[in-house]
Amino acid sequence: MENINLEGTPKTPSVSFNANEGRLELRGRSIPENSVEFYKPINLWIEEYAKSPKEITVFDVKLEYFNTSSSKCILDVFKLLEEINGNGTEVKVNWYFEEDDEDMEEAGEDYQAIIPLPFTMIEVEEI
Fold first, then answer.
1. How confident is the model over 68-90, as a mean pLDDT?
2. Hey, what CATH topology would domain 4-124 get?
3. For the segment 38-51, what is each residue's pLDDT rounded down to a tens digit?
4. Which tens digit of pLDDT belongs to each residue from 52-74?
5. d(CA 12, CA 25)
6. Where are any strands of DSSP class E within the chain?
7. Can you tell me the distance from the alpha carbon of 39 to that of 33, in angstroms, rounded to the nearest whole number?
8. Furthest CA-CA distance within the chain
9. For residues 43 and 76, what is the distance between their CA atoms, to the nearest angstrom?
10. CA 46, CA 63: separation in Å to the nearest integer?
11. What residue spans define the domains of the chain?
12. For residues 42 and 40, what is the distance between their CA atoms, to the nearest angstrom?
């Protein structure tokens, strides 16, 4: 299965999904013109990955900011990962947020409350 490696832009996050390692990462800002279009190939990749996931899949979310339409798309990503969790496989989420960025910390806590995946909240100096 092909990995995804997309360079980030001022409006879109960098995306690094490695099927061999079971490692997924979103990093940067997510304010694309069309969030649904941007996240569509990511969702398709996860659906394909779900057919034979690694025993442990780690999803690192290192976003400094995302808009409302991206938040729905990110929720969809979590829902797809939720389907992988269980039956001998585990999905772990690492939610990174910059110190003093209460909005991003709260966003991670909100997702944690909605999605039954193990979240680790990680405060960092800078993303």
1. 95
2. Transcription Regulator spoIIAA (3.30.750)
3. 999 999 999 999 99
4. 999 999 999 999 999 999 999 99
5. 13
6. 4-6, 14-18, 23-30, 56-66, 90-98, 119-124
7. 11
8. 39
9. 8
10. 19
11. 4-124
12. 5
Residue 112 CB coordination number (10 Å)? 17
- Give one DSSP letter per residue of 87-121, joined into a string: TTBEEEEEEEEETT-HHHHHHHHHHHHHS-S-EEE
Of 51, 49, 124, 121, the residue nearest 92 (C-alpha): 121
Is residue 127 pLDDT above 90, yes or no?
Answer: no
Q: Which amino acid is at 122?
A: I
Q: Give the type of residue at 54.
A: K
Tokens 């398709």, located at residue: 44
* Distance separating alpha carbons of residues 81 and 14, to the nearest angstrom: 19
Residue 59 DSSP SS3: strand
> Do the beta carbons of residue 115 and residue 78 sit within 8 Å?
yes
- The amino acid at residue 27 is R
